[in-house]
Structure prediction request, 264 residues.
Amino acid sequence: MNAVRTWERFSLGERMARFTVYFGVVAAIVASLQTVEVIPEFITDAPEQVGDMLRRMWPIAWGFYPEGVQEPLLESLHIATLGTVLAVLMAVPVAFLAARNVTRFAWLNHAAKLVLVSARSVNTLIWALFFVAVFGPGALAGMLAIAFHSIGFTGKLLGEALEEANRGSIEALEASGAPWLAIAIKGYWPQVRPAFWGIVLFRWDINVRESAVLGFVGAGGVGMALDTALNLFQWERAAMILVAIFIVVLIAEIATTQLRKRIL
Prediction:
C-alpha cells in the first residue's frame, strides 16, 4: 500500500534555515537594545525638548544669510563638485581594472575591487577627520574626503556597466588591430555613457548632502557655520542655515533629476 504524500511548502531543511534566520534576527535586535541602553526618561521628554528648540529657532534670522551663510554654502557646493570630479578621475581607471571583460588578469581585478571596497567602507566623516589631521582644517580636507569616499561608489557601478557592455563592436575593433585606447573610446564609451552620466549626477547629488556636515569635523563648508551657531546657542541663525541647506539640497535634487531625464 502506497503511503499518502502530503504537499508541504517548505522542506524540513528549509524550515530549519528560516527558523535559524528569524532567531538570529530577533537575537540581534535584543542584543542591540541591551547595548544601546535606551533611557525611557529621555524618550518621554523628547517632544517637549523638540518643541522648546523650535520655539528658540523662531523667528528665523533671515538677515544672517548674506554675511554668514552664503559664502560657506557656496564653499560646500564647491567641495561637492570638485570632490565628485576628482573621484571620477580616479575611479575611471580603477573601474576598467575591476571589469573582468576589460582586464583579463584576475589579480588586477581583485586588487581594483579591494580598492573600491576599501574606499566606500570608510565613512566620509572618517575620511574628513583623516585629511583634517594631514592638511589641517578647511575645504581641501573636505574635497579629498568626498573624493576618496566616492571612488568606491562610482568605480563599482561603472565597472558593472563595463562588464555588461556588448562584445560585438569591441571584438570588431580588436580584430581590426585597433589600439586599446581606441577600443575604450569607440567600443566601451558609447555603451556606458548613459550609465556614466547617471552615476556622476547621482553621486554629485549625494555629495551635496554630505558636504553640509563635513564642517562639524573642520572640513570646511556650511557645516562649520552651523556648528558655530549651535555651540553659541544662536538658534535663529542655526534655523537660517538649516533652511538654506534644505533649499540647496532640494534644488540639487530637481536639477539632477531633470539632467538625468535629458541624458538617459
Q: What stands out?
A: The mean pLDDT is 81. Residues 65-98 form the longest helix (34 residues). Residues 55-263 form a domain with the MetI-like fold fold (CATH 1.10.3720.10).
